């Protein structure tokens, strides 16, 4: 069994150690916010934090993730209050939403290291592909999130539609995930 901490919870996967972390998260742990885009590390839709670093989960196996701290979009903030999430909404930097979780994870990792990045730093740190073309608004959103992070303020924006904040904040029990039947 492969063990790691996912969103603050100890998780053990009874899966082939060569299974990409993406599939363990999506299929076994039911953390479907991490998206499958290309499976080759080109699009960034599957971006998660591994020990605080933004990595493409399709390129890391669960064996390589053994003992590490994994944060998915579901674990970034329980109520969608992370400054990047709020800034993406406020700047209308979301279109279809498919690439959004990966972009948010990459941006959050950038802001953790560089609280006030410039446009060129943002462009270099966000390798994600967005087929809807939100890039100008994306840069504005990340700059906004950086300003908010620096002054520990919040962005005034309506909550995102979908899951209520109460449901998003619900406690999730520790997982011991068996391999899926063949």
UniProtKB/TrEMBL annotation:
Keywords annotated in UniProt: 2Fe-2S, Iron, Iron-sulfur, Metal-binding, Oxidoreductase
Which residues does the annotated region (Disordered) include?
150-182
Q: Which Gene3D superfamilies match?
A: 3.10.20.30, [2Fe-2S]-binding domain (1.10.150.120)
UniProt cross-references to InterPro entries, sorted A to Z? 2Fe-2S-bd, 2Fe-2S-bd_dom_sf, 2Fe-2S_ferredoxin-like_sf, 2Fe-2S_ferredoxin-type, 2Fe2S_fd_BS, Beta-grasp_dom_sf, Diverse_Oxidoreductases
- Which interval of the chain is the signal sequence? none
MF terms in GO:
2 iron, 2 sulfur cluster binding; metal ion binding; oxidoreductase activity
The answer, when asked if Metal-binding is one of the entry's keywords, is: yes
Q: Does the keyword Oxidoreductase apply?
A: yes
Which residues belong to any copy of the 2Fe-2S ferredoxin-type domain? 1-76
Q: PANTHER family from the entry? A: BLR6218 PROTEIN (PTHR44379:SF2), OXIDOREDUCTASE WITH IRON-SULFUR SUBUNIT (PTHR44379)
What's this protein's name? (2Fe-2S)-binding protein
């Amino acid at each position: 069994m492969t063990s790691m901490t996912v969103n603050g919870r100890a998780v053990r996967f009874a899966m082939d150690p060569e299974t990409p972390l993406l599939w363990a998260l999506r299929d076994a742990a039911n953390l479907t916010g991490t998206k499958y885009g290309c499976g080759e590390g080109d699009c960034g839709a599957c971006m998660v934090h591994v020990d605080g670093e933004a990595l493409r989960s399709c390129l890391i196996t669960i064996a390589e993730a053994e003992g590490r701290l994994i944060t998915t979009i579901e674990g970034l903030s329980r109520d969608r209050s992370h400054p990047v999430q709020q800034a993406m909404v406020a700047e209308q930097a979301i279109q279809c939403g498919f690439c959004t979780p990966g972009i948010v994870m990459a941006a959050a990792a950038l802001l953790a290291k560089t609280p006030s990045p410039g446009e060129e730093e943002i462009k270099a740190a966000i390798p994600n592909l967005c087929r809807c073309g939100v890039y100008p608004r994306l840069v504005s959103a990340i700059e906004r999130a950086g300003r908010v992070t620096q002054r520990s303020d919040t962005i005034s924006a309506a909550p995102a539609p979908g899951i209520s904040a109460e449901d998003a904040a619900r406690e999730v029990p520790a997982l011991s995930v068996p391999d899926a039947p063949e």
